[in-house]
Amino acid sequence: MPARLVAAVCVCAALASAAFAEPGPPISIGQLHTLKSAALGEERAVMIHLPPGYEAGTQRYPVLYLTDAEAQFGHTASTADFLAVQGRIPPLIVVAIRNTDRTRDLTPTKGSLRKGEKGGLPPTAGGADRFLAFLGTELVPYVDGQFRTLPYRAFAGHSFGGLLALHALYTRPELFQAILAVSPTFPWDDDYLLKTARPFFAEKKEARHALFVAIGNEPELVPGFRALRELARGSGADGFEASFREYPDDDHGSLVLAAHHDGLKVLFAGWVLPRDPQTGFPRGTAEEIAAQYAKLSKTAGFTVVPPERIVNLAGYGRLAERKVPQALAIFEMNAKNHPESANVWDSLGDGLEAAGRLEDAKTAVLKAVALGGKTNDPLLPAFREHLEKLNGRLEGAR
Questions:
Q1: Cα dist from 166 to 60, 244, 293, 387, whole Å
Q2: If you placed Cys at 162, which of 184, 297, 314, 384 could pair as Cys (CB 3.0 to 4.6 Å)?
């Protein structure tokens, strides 16, 4: 074999060896928790995903609960993180419940799938109220006790889970402030969802809820979907916001990914700032941002602090527009709202540096380095690099 060929084979072998080197630590998107439920008389497993940066911060988060953890947890947690990074929704804690007896837990009555049909389903059907009791008296208090949550909860369900989601809205409206129902089983028990929707909308003078309902190419769901849409649109309940969307290119199974992506954006629309279509940055001055979240706080019934990442993006947007005083005011507001975040102090340093206040910028970045060191912030090397550059600029100015 020619020497050059031997060398090439050796190089290829080395590359192959490098490609299959010892793997690093596993990549995890959540934790498995087990609760012994008195309401259900059994142990229940839940999968919980915390947003990136949770461990290093003090921020509190809305919580998204969902059914069918086995099928829906992975893509929903990833979608929530992706949308939060893009500034389209606030970061969320995602809690998904694994099934034991799915039909029992997700159906509100002992009904059937088709109108006029009797029986044909497992005899355990009709346990939704017990399942909601588990959520309200056991799971939600557990999550609130273990994690930094806000008193704002969303619930997502698909198929029977969508049936449960709407049942929860009608019968336990205090549990969840936002409902995402995908392909809800409208024909169940001779149009149960419509029969219970009518008195709900007729009697409610106030219903501070957000609702998103989606169906795919599912002809059997269309009559119920459109009838519910008309009932919701005719609701005079104060604070009630509903959105209905059909996806003709998706079927019953494939719909969930797209509907969760779109539904989360709709349900949390008021939680994010309007965006400039040209730059992608959030719009607004510090005063406008404060006013938007004051309005949201009034609607939600508690103080909603402007999310750190979204406000930070707005500050950099004003810097990109060379509106330095506006950017600086936004960064200062963010540091006041999130004083334990290393990143907001580093960003404030950028604003102060742009304003020519190098000594003040150094003070802010020193705080970022100190906080980042305490929390093992993954951005700590970037903060230190920023500090070195500032020191260089200060030395050059002397």
A1: 27, 13, 28, 53
A2: 184
Please state, in angstroms and rounded to a whole number, the distance separating the CA atoms of residues 180 and 260: 8
Task: Judge contact between 64 and 80, C-beta under 8 A.
Answer: yes
Q: Could you tell me the CA-to-CA distances from 257 to 69, 102, 154, 247, 386 in Å, in that order?
A: 14, 20, 17, 11, 39
Name the band, by pLDDT with cuts 50, 70 and 90, for residue 264.
very high
Q: Return the closest-CA partner of residue 101 out of 132, 122, 73.
A: 122
Tens digits of per-residue pLDDT, 15-32? Answer: 444 555 678 888 889 999
With tokens 């106030």, the residue in question is: 206
Instruction: Decide: residue 52, CB within 10 A, 0-12 exposed, 13-18 middle, 19+ buried.
Output: middle
Distance CA 141, CA 152 (A): 13
What's the order of all strands across the beta sheet hosting 61-66? 31-37, 42-49, 93-97, 61-66, 149-158, 178-182, 210-215, 241-246
Specify whether the CB–CB gap between 79 and 299 falls below 8 A.
no
Burial of 363 (0-12, 13-18, 19+ CB in 10 A): middle
Residues 81, 173: contact at Cβ < 8 Å?
Answer: no
> pLDDT tens digits for 72-104?
999 999 999 999 988 889 899 999 999 999 999
Domains of the chain: residue spans and CATH: 31-271 (3.40.50.1820), 286-397 (1.25.40.10)
pTM score: 0.84
Beta strands in 280-341 (DSSP E): none
Helix 160-171 and helix 188-203, axial crossing angle in degrees, nearest 10? 30
Phi-psi region of 315 (alpha: psi -120 to 50; beta: other; left: phi over 0): alpha
